Amino acid sequence: MSQKQIGVIVGSLRKGSFTGMMAHALQELSPPSLKISNIEIGAMPHYNQDLETDSPPASWTQFRKQVLASNGILFITPEYNRGVPGVLKNAVDVGSRPWGKSVWAGKPGAVISMSPGALGGIAANHHLRQTLVGVGLATMAHPEAYLPAVGGMFDESGKLKSAETREFITAFMRAFEAWINKNG
Q1: What tens digit of pLDDT does each residue of 127-144 get?
Q2: Number of domains in the chain
Q3: Where does residue 24 rank: exposed (0-12), middle (13-18), buried (19+ CB within 10 A)?
Q4: Which domain holds residue 82?
Q5: Is the distance from CB of 6 to CB of 34 less than 8 angstroms?
Q6: In Å, how far from its chain's centre is CA 31?
Q7: How many CA atoms lie within 13 A of 8 on its CB side?
Q8: What is the CATH number of the domain that holds 39?
Q9: CA distance 68 to 125
Q10: Are 103 and 95 in contact (CB under 8 A)?
């Protein structure tokens, strides 16, 4: 059985972001049948239909190709003001255009949200899910992943400290593997 390519889109651009640390943790915690690759979103200009010409921005083209080449997409997002970061929403918008050529349509996906607070980014998670429904991404409904208190979740080297969190993410990624096999 060949490995499935999983594109990971991290919603925070901060160098030491918890969402970025989680993306690295997935390398270790995912089933061997999933190959995890980050899809960078920070260099893309804001979506503007005027730029959607015969030669759109190279960063848009590269992003779209990476999403299309992925068997599944995993979004890892922080919560900003009870929603998703603008850079993440921009990535969704860039991928959904031009009209009729969305790279998201029918692609299996999942969402992990993280927050220093007690609710684990639940508002951002549901905000993103609502947007993903609109672009046709087949978003895994269960299990849901809301990770609270991320400030103490990682050690100095960026590794997950909690065995319980490691077990949860491992089980989440197994469920995502099954979702991709069913919907991919």
Answers
A1: 999 999 999 999 999 999
A2: 1
A3: middle
A4: 4-183
A5: yes
A6: 17
A7: 23
A8: 3.40.50.360
A9: 23
A10: yes
